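#data-curation
PF: Archiving a pair of folding outputs for the training set. Convention for this channel: one message per protein, sequence first, structure tokens after, nothing in between. First:
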Amino acid sequence: MIGAAEDARPGPTVRRRIWTVRLAPPPGQAPAAGPAPPAVRARLDTLATEEPLEIRLRPAGAAAPFPISVTMRTPGHDFELAAGFLFTEGVVRGREAIGRMEYCVGPEATQQFNAVSIGLRADALPDPERLTRHFYTTSSCGVCGKASLDAVRAQVPWPAPVPAAGPRLAPAVLAALPDRLRDAQGLFARTGGLHACGLFDPAGRLRSVREDVGRHNALDKLIGEQLLAGRLPLADGVLVLSGRASFELVQKAAMAGAPLLVAVGAPSSLAAGAAAAFGITLVGFARGATFNVYTHPERVLG
């Protein structure tokens, strides 16, 4: 029996006392007679929790797990996050490689809710040297250009590029997806400080959503959920991001086998190049009634 109180586990939000300052009169309105002091009100506010999560691997037969990465995340769906991270970064090739997942045990047999141990099956032992090199490069910009694309393509477990045949998304359905994602963001509604990734079907129906302070974590949580449920590849799925689209997010979409990636914000040049190479339809600036299609427009405009 692990001696850890459940209330020691960090939650997705915290309450904090803050001071709201409002200029009086409002900006742009001339004061009636001289400057007035600002109005200050103390109140409690809800903030998104940000805590580190250390991901440790425990190969079959190993005496103890060893750490491979630390990410700042919003607590919740930690096992999905760890599984999705290991899969999208090419450490494991599928859910069959993953064994027991548990929070690590610290001093006095207490659970460490900011450290997870992922057991690996006997035939899923990664190369420690490759792990060290891999996570060093992806912790910043990594390598660039063609070398990046070739490295990711070698890891994708599905056909890459994604087959041209597949789901089509009506423009009106696509334009509505960001608002549907926002409506499903329960934690964002309370904090205003979280990214989200949603999985939709071609008819615009929401299948799943995950939130996190990190854009990459939100997508890893969602992909980890689908991986552990045996639902990869996402051959008819539409991934919707609440922020911008970077190369790493396109890489993760390719690892998940998703043919469409929609972002509320802008894509980077390398993200567009990667989406073109991987056969992914990349959409950016999806806001209201307008959006830009950067690659493979046939799935939206065909």
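PF: Second:
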Amino acid sequence: MPIELFGLDGALERILRGIVLTSLAVVWTLALVRIVGLRAFSKMTAFDFVATIATGSLIAQAGTRSDWLDYAQALAAIGAVFLMQWAFARLRLISEGMAKVISNEPRLLMRDGEFLEDAMRQSRVSRENILEKIRASSASSIDEVSAVVLETTGDMHVMTGDVDPRLMKGVRGWNESGDERQAEGDGAGQSR
């Protein structure tokens, strides 16, 4: 059944329908965020990022529907994205194996002012990318940089000063980078 909200002809009806349907889809999305929680638009995992993009795309699609069934399908798809995100988050909490499958692993790209070329190549991160992050940090010299970590979200963090090994738990390359101390250690013998 076609959507006729205002009984107008032509472009004005379409424009007003787009405004109203998009607004309703946004309200539906906000209601789902209230149910699922603030994690709904986080960037903790790659799936969270994809879910955010998919939700935006589905809201845009909902605003262009000309049929109530198609509109309901777009709203149901938004609900399905939120349900999948909730399910994946629960699976990550209850199963370490699933957490490894679903989540990326943070990666060490620089250690004590030295670029880790293999890690950079595997992560497809250039020196220029790292230097840009260092310039944006509080470091005024590469020698001040204790570590640069590519996080699971794709963000890079620059660490200066002494690094507590507990912060580096699960960071790929931390223990392989010549540090005999364990990331799970008690913090004694911190690097740099």
